[in-house]
Amino acid sequence: MKKANFVEIEGRSAGYLALLGFLGIFILAALGSSFYMEHNGHHVTGMTNQIVWGMPHVFAVFLIVAASGALNIASISSVFNKTAYKPLARLSGLLAISLLLGGLMVLVLDLGRPDRLIIAMTRYNFRSIFAWNMILYNGFFLIVGIYLWTMMQRSLNKYTHYAGFAAFIWRLTLTTGTGSIFGFLVARQAYDSAIMAPMFVIMSFSFGLAIFLLVLLAAYNWTHRPLGDVIFNTLKNLLGVFVAAVLYFVIVQHLTNIYMAKDSGVEAFILLNGGIYTKLFWIGQILLGSLVPLALLYHPTWGKSRTLVGVAAMLVIIGGMAQMYVIIIGGQAYPLSLFPGMEVQSSFFDGVVNHYAPSLSEIMLGLGGMATAMITVVLAIKILRFLPESLADEVVDPQHS
Amino acid sequence: MSVGLYKKKLSLLLAGLILTLPLSLFAEGILPTVPKAKAKATAEYGCVNPVADMRRNHMKYLLHHRDQTMHKGIRTKKYSLAKCIACHVTPDKNGKYPKFGDNDFFCSSCHNYAAVTIDCFQCHNDNPKSAYSSLNLNRQSLPEGHEKFTSNDTLPSGDAK
Amino acid sequence: MSHIESSKNAALTRRKFLGSAMATTAGLTIAPGVLLFRAAQAKPAAQAVTSKVRWGLLIDNTKCSTGCDDCVTACKTVHKLEGHNRPETDVQWIRKLTVTDKQTGHVMSLPMMCQHCGNPPCVDVCPTGASFKRADGIVLVDRHICIGCRYCMMACPYKARSFEHEVVHDQSVSAPRGKGTVESCTLCVYRVDHGKIPACVEACNEAKHGAMLFGDLNDPESEISKRLTKYGGKEIRADLGLNTGVRYQGI
Prior knowledge:
Order of helices and strands of chain B: HHHHH
Order of helices and strands of chain C: HHEHEEHEEHEEHHEHE
Largest sheet of chain C: 3 strands, mixed
Oligomer: heterotrimer
Strand content of chain B: under 5%
Structural class of chain C: alpha+beta
Helix content of chain C: 25-40%
Number of helices of chain B: 5
Largest interface: B-C, 49 and 68 residues
Shape of chain C: globular
Shape of chain B: globular
Number of strands of chain C: 9
Number of strands of chain B: 0
Strand content of chain C: 15-25%
Largest sheet of chain B: none
Distance between the termini of chain B: 52 Å
Number of helices of chain C: 8
CATH architecture of the largest domain in chain C: 2-Layer Sandwich
Structural class of chain B: mainly alpha
Radius of gyration of chain B: 20 Å
Helix content of chain B: 40-55%
Distance between the termini of chain C: 48 Å
Number of domains of chain C: 2
């Protein structure tokens, strides 16, 4: 096996600068949106006292979940000693940090008082899973940072295995924590379930790998570096397994709820008569986000086309966003059950399906988070040695040549 | 105090005066004019503590009292923000109260000058009169057997409610 | 250790203050009678609330009538909760619910507000500890450290909390509140600390409805405890095990 040779990308082409400019516009728009929302108060957003977590949370939770998933490739190489993944480990770590950065940016800028971030960082209520998450997020930056360092400085390579193992445990804990933010909510029928935590872990595998695959394809296409079939097919097949696993968890989650009479209302809402949420579930999450990508990835001829596999990864991301929307917004749209079995009315929207329409500023803030994640990757691969010069088959697979 | 120390102190004082002389020439226009309080909270200090101490440490007292009141229900008046406002924010001759941010608002007069941002008045009322306008604490009391510590809670004397 | 130390110091300064306050306010206060009373009663003001008391409400649904919202109006007046004619984002600390049994057609009307849980989910989930329960059972938001994440609103089964969506002006001294933080019924903590009952209860009594009773749940001799012992009182969503401080009769 040839040693993978990591080289910075040149990053002087018009295309590179255009990409930076393109992402920069989104980031500026996000900052502008955030200022607009904070200046006027959240009444200018789609958010209400009924739907308290809106579009920014859909983006933020998606990005945070994807972040820990993006680290998977590195974990497979360092923890499970699969040498074929080793050349990809640095990009995997970088992408994980970048996605988390983007997600947290959205989350923080959507707070009622983002100026009090320091309070969130200094005062912890240890009964709160949210507080634990803040520690987990900060720790993730630190641990993945150290992990990348041990990979990139040759004298520290002997520690990579240990750093990788720590990062692997940390990322599992992190996504368990993110899922538990919802799983621990006893008040809302759509959440309130232990399955949220493992389901979020599996979702992270799938979303993170889909983004990783797209970034890899883009980076190697645009820099004209060779990307062999061996690594490509491995990643493609892995994505298929993850997509199927997410589908399995979704089925179990809904079957369990359907079985319990107390939750049949909320299940009927999501699966049958929830309007936009039902459509997003069946068309967005199940059809476009799961079934179509599975078909594309496992079809004997379509699965060989890089374009179609790219499309499949893109669909997994879109389906993931749809799933987040159904979980976060749909879960709040369904009214709280104050008097089970009774009809409740008030001037405060009790007993009715709550209305939510995302505002432009919320969507721009979310997209800005994605752009922040991407611009971090784009800049980092120019400055430091994250990408192997070649991922051709003979570099990746020792048995191949 | 020994004579030597006294001399040393005096010379230090003189040196300080000379150094600040050019500044004091501009003071009229540059230094903030802090509005006078409505009344003397204590006869010996004017304010609740010596003025120099309040200037230096008011934020510490306010923050400490804030947490004591919020979390423990301790409602002594000495460092109560509402009481500070009630005494220090005074109306002009037309009876109009300055707003937080105006240079003639007590806190802003200095905070604007020092460019120190505070966010007290995003939640607290900067107007002593209207802050108390909705209160009516003179009606029904707690059930028997529970101590009450004030009969009513009003603006400091000298202010018509 | 340092906490104990600092509270000791605080107690000392407080005592010192009390002395000087007594000496000096004499010169300022016009009515000496009022001063004497204050001085005599001033010590409890410096005392922290204790868990010997647990404040609670008992709502008698048989006396609460549909269409009456005296309690809601009183709350809005006292705390200056002015809306902006935007029902989806305007805050509500207390609201009237109309509950219909689909089987029998039986209709109830009742006030709903923060239930001041013994095990409040909002306190558990709050990342900064801004959501907290006072020793005397009153659940509050410390808006000095609330970052506006709204997780407590996700966690509350009663929809008792509101997010302040807009800039607030002209607040009451009893209810400082501002944009970007979460707020809810305070059980009129300011009034209770000043020896008064909550505004909603007062309004309900003054209108001669008598559907609301405020008192100490820990004191077996209190009116509320006696009534609860005699007639019982239910929690809403008792299945969640939250041990609410607000109990209902006739639901």
